[in-house]
Amino acid sequence: MRTPFSLLAAAAVFVVPAAAQVQQPRYLNPRDVQEAAQQHSEVLAEFGGAETGPRAAYVEGVGRRIAAYSGTANAGQVYHFTTLNSAVENAFAVPGGYVYITRQLMGIMNDESELAFVVGHETGHVAANHAQARRSAANNTAILGVLGQILGAVVGNNAFGGLISQSAQQFSKLRLLSFTRDQEYQADVLGIRYMTAAGYDPNGSAGMLAQLTSTSALEARIQGDKNRSTPEWASTHPLSENRMAQAAQIARQTGRAGNGIRNRDLFLAQLDGVMVDDDPAQGVIDGRSFTHPDLRLQFYVPTGYLMQNGTRAVTIQGSGGQAQFSGGRFSGGMDAYVAQVLQQLTGGRVQLAMGPMQRTTINGIPASYVVGRANTSSGGVDVGVFAYQWDPNTIYHFVTLTKAGQGLAPFAQMFDSLRRISTAEALAIRPRIIDVVTVGRGDTIQSLAGRMAYKDFQLDRFLTLNGLAASSRLTPGQKVKLVVYGNRQS
């Protein structure tokens, strides 16, 4: 039986300096490398696409500098670092050496050493082959693609095992593993080792974990008003004060804490102008509403329900059930469309006892809906499809999963809320971007926080974004981040 990684072992990692360690380079599994390369385009499609330009090149450069100290053979060729256009605060890696970081996660960082720790942490997962250790668990617990997310569970995970379709399963390998706590500690240790060897201040590790913790805590406070689901990082990278304390301890043991590369100004210059929160091109969540300015539509979720915006769909979850909104071009008629949705949902492997197709009109839009019953090992489940004939060649729809007997009722208000928005309403939706400003004489935390492009929690957002406390003092010439409204790109 393999001895689990422990905090004692973690603390011992730095007994031998990284430069003095003699070990054979580890080669990544060729099959993993091939699969990662093949899946790369699918990852990009699911997470909003890849950023390009100077910022993407900057992240790639930092990543390659870190990976050179990972003990991986041909690290400069096998590791790839991609910045994703995603509003989810996350970073993840796949076994074949592809490391991904979202623009949203970059937005909460305050210098290059924090970026170095994140890419080092994810590189550590690859170099330590953590995915292999978790692979068997992933077969049962991996979060699937957008469709798979809504099949999570209304009455228990096992209830929907037979409803997961092939169209959902094709994305299962792209999703993140929830690593064990010991694996997270080990990845932290490896990340600190790599960044220190690369010349960075190891204190950036504890600083980054502090940013993640405070950001997650703020999101938890805001969620009741904003109807957003938990940030992905919080579910796939367990946060705790122990991790911060451990990182700070290991940083001290390097003998280099407080020394090394921080590159704050260079990092903030790269961050200036980056989009945060939702990309209007993918639709925007604001409280209980989802608005897509390009598709000219809007709907509201029931009070207390949470939304997650994705590239392909919007997922909705709450105590009464789960749902997904998506759709697009289709010219085969409503009945054929609904039948296709049901076929994709079940994969043809689960029998649904279907009720009759019903027709109605919602805010002037022709609509059709149907409810079916699926019997699972955990009991009955009602599966609903509510579709809208948006124009002759476009159909949008909700898929819903509720407990047997509830049918579409928990989402009735949501179905009735879908409407077309005006040109003026569409034009009023603008992206939020980071604006790096220099503190001037007379500027205060309160005055700068008042410029944040939010209607609520302005002070808390400003402090958290910049890693400041309410008692912090600003000095003229200091650079800080604001979130302001940008312009829509044509």
From TrEMBL:
Any one Gene Ontology cellular component term annotated for this protein: membrane
Going by the record, the broad EC class of this enzyme is: hydrolase
Q: Name one GO biological process term.
A: proteolysis involved in protein catabolic process
Please provide the record's keywords in A-Z order.
Answer: Hydrolase, Metal-binding, Metalloprotease, Protease, Signal, Zinc
Keyword Signal assigned to the entry: answer is: yes
Q: Which InterPro entries match?
A: LysM, Mito/Outer_Membr_Metalloprot, Peptidase_M48
Q: Does the keyword Acyltransferase apply?
A: no
Which cofactors? Answer: Zn(2+)
As recorded in UniProt, its EC number(s) are: 3.4.24.-
The UniProt record lists the LysM domain at 435-482
Gene Ontology molecular function: any one = metalloendopeptidase activity
In the record, which residues are listed under signal peptide?
Answer: 1-20
- Name this polypeptide is given: M48 family metalloprotease
Give the organism, scientific name. Sphingomonas cremea
